[in-house]
Design a protein that fits this description.
This protein is α/β, with parallel strands linked by helices. The protein has two domains: 198 residues, P-loop containing nucleotide triphosphate hydrolases (Rossmann fold); 80 residues, Alpha-Beta Plaits (2-Layer Sandwich). It contains twelve helices and 15 strands. The relative contact order is 0.15.
């Protein structure tokens, strides 16, 4: 299931959580979502899941998200960063998910065993009464009990001990093979074993989209922004992989190699197709909020 987002914006009062975020995740891609605290990662995932309303456009599997989510609900799995305090018994939740997936509850029990979680003893307990680690193991067990087309995972290992994280890695690799994955984590070293692409958010903006190796080699970090001047210009930008943000502005996050190829192409069509080009170069990716800086070139 492919995902395409165009010009996503979300404000909480005066705080701008998402600022014209646009990207495309091909079907079967495995993408890590990175960024410092407050960058907008959880907001973006909740918008994709339909838990928050936002400006812009989202398509899932080539369909508008507004209609696709209901049609594709049984082919999507989600693990939130913070487990909800559900009062329902664990067993009722397991049975409900199995029914939604049109599968057997035995698959949930097996997934839980793989996560070293004894559901038999927790079957009648309220979900909210489990420990933080057990709640997270159960949510992971539910998400990975049945193969689906799309996994959206928000810091799935945050509440797990080292053994729990290793169990998650093993189960994830086995179950999620071939599916589209968007996984948020602040542990870059873990992502290297799980994904091959990256989206990096900073201050609500997308500052990198591309192969994960671009982060480790220091090639990441340019945002090209173009203001279209005519309908033909907008069409050309869309064909080049740009996403519309606000008004006539379009943007694309690129690595160093793509920037070198793209800028001459943009310059050749400066007259008539677009009125302005801006390049923001990230000297160092700031994933912890304490290092790095950026500057703009026009």
């Amino acid at each position: 299931m492919d995902i395409e987002a165009k010009g996503l914006t979300k404000n909480f009062g005066q705080f701008k959580a998402l600022r014209g975020v646009g990207f495309r995740l091909p079907s079967g891609s495995r993408t890590g979502l990175l960024g410092p605290n407050g960058a907008g990662k959880t907001t973006l995932l909740r918008v994709l899941m339909g838990m928050l309303k936002a400006g812009g456009e989202i398509s899932l599997g080539g369909l508008p998200a507004s209609t696709a989510r209901q049609r594709l609900a049984d082919q999507m799995a989600y693990v939130p960063q913070i487990a909800p305090r559900l009062p329902a018994p664990v067993g009722e939740i397991a049975l409900a998910v199995a029914k939604l997936r049109r599968g057997s509850v035995e698959a949930v029990l097996k997934s839980a065993r793989d996560m070293d979680l004894d559901l038999d003893s927790a079957w009648t307990k309220p979900f909210a009464g489990l420990s933080g680690g057990s709640r997270q193991r159960f949510l992971i067990s539910l998400a990975l009990a049945f193969p689906v087309q799309l996994y959206i995972l928000d810091e799935p290992t945050a509440a797990l001990d080292p053994e729990g994280r290793q169990r998650f890695f093993s189960l994830f690799r086995r179950v999620a093979a071939g599916a589209t994955v968007l996984l948020s984590s602040h542990r870059v070293e873990e992502l290297r074993h799980l994904v091959d692409r990256a989206l990096v958010l900073k201050d609500g903006r997308l500052v990198f989209e591309g192969p994960l190796e671009g982060l480790s080699t220091g090639r990441a970090g340019s945002m090209i922004e173009v203001r279209a001047e005519a309908t033909e210009g907008s069409a050309r930008l869309a064909a080049l992989g740009f996403s519309r943000t606000v008004g006539d502005w379009w943007c694309k996050a690129v690595d160093l190699d793509e920037k070198r190829k793209l800028l001459p192409e943009l310059a050749r069509h400066m007259d008539g197709d677009w009125a302005d080009i801006q390049v923001r170069d990230m000297e160092r990716l700031d994933l912890d909020g304490t290092k790095g800086q950026s500057h703009e070139n026009c």
